[in-house]
Task: structure prediction
Amino acid sequence: MQSHISVILDKALADVSLSAADGYELAACSAEDLPALLAAAGALRDRYKGRTVTYSRKVFLPVTNLCRDRCSYCTFRKDPRDPAAWTMTPEEIRDWVERGRAQGCKEALMCLGDKPEKAYSQYRKTLARFGHATTTAYVYHACEIALAHGLLPHTNAGVLSYEEMKLLKQVNVSLGLMLENISPRLRQKGMPHFSAPDKEPAVRVRMLREAGELAIPFTTGILIGIGETWAERVDSLLAIREIHQTYGHIQEVIVQNFRAKPDTRMAGAPEPDSTDMAKTVAIARLLLGGRMNVQAPPNLNPADHKLLLRAGINDWGGISPVTKDYVNPEAAWPHLERLAQTCREEGFTLRERLAIYPEYIDRPGFLVPALRPRTQELYAQVMA
Ligand code: SF4
Result:
């Protein structure tokens, strides 16, 4: 008799949408079932994505590390009085964009803390000195600088309103916000998002939906190992799937693993291990289907690149030849040549992509016309 797990895997391979109950069963599978789980996820990826795995060559621009939230695992955010607090000046943005361009980067990743102007008067003065009243207006300007230098902006500025996204769509090829997890439990006292109002799942779901209404190619994902249960991981992936089924705008889903950092409240918390990560990636692939782009960060899993390929990813995300990962500064990007070699050893070709996936470049309503010529030019370059 077929086991429950193999029945579910057959369903996924037959492109039948898996239910929450199926997802919970996969999450509870035994160690003996794990190879079959990974194999099915890999086969589904192969059928839709082939043996090509992509990355985006980017320059990482941490526009400001001020943030009104306090997530228990974060070392990126700083208070204004902290000597390590910064807000990049327009000149610094221009300088780094130029360095990125010189190194062949095509993506300008604008990454910043959430709503600092709501919390810090000093920061409001800094913005005013730059000639802007809001962070969004400043980020818009930063994106204009990147575009003027031929780079394609992708902004992850935390929770944005409908109007803010509508504005930023004019100067971004895509936007991003990690859902992280759908469970409000993680906002309770003692949990990692207790002091992070912008991590309220309903608020993040609202933004994901509004990005869909605005037809913005969108990057989201889950953060694993922050105190969530397996069922909550499955629920989070299914929430993303439901939003994508409604609007069709989720261009990629990241499975990111928590890394414990010194001097944080979660410094002593256990990190997800290789099996945990691979199993979650495989479940993401099986729940989201073969068409979705599924990504895992290579710098947070340096010893597991082959395992993650086997588990069903088809993308490594942004990799920078010029800037570090400011959110995980201790985790160096892999050397591209070495990553390409690892991919080859597993039977994959590593290929560059843009910050907008090809399926959204010509899709009516998504990329604004002003950004199309440069995007098409760069797309021709990465496909050459
Ligand atoms: S993870 Fe993001 S929202 Fe949370 S404190 Fe850090 S910068 Fe702020």
Remarks:
- The chain has a mean pLDDT of 97.
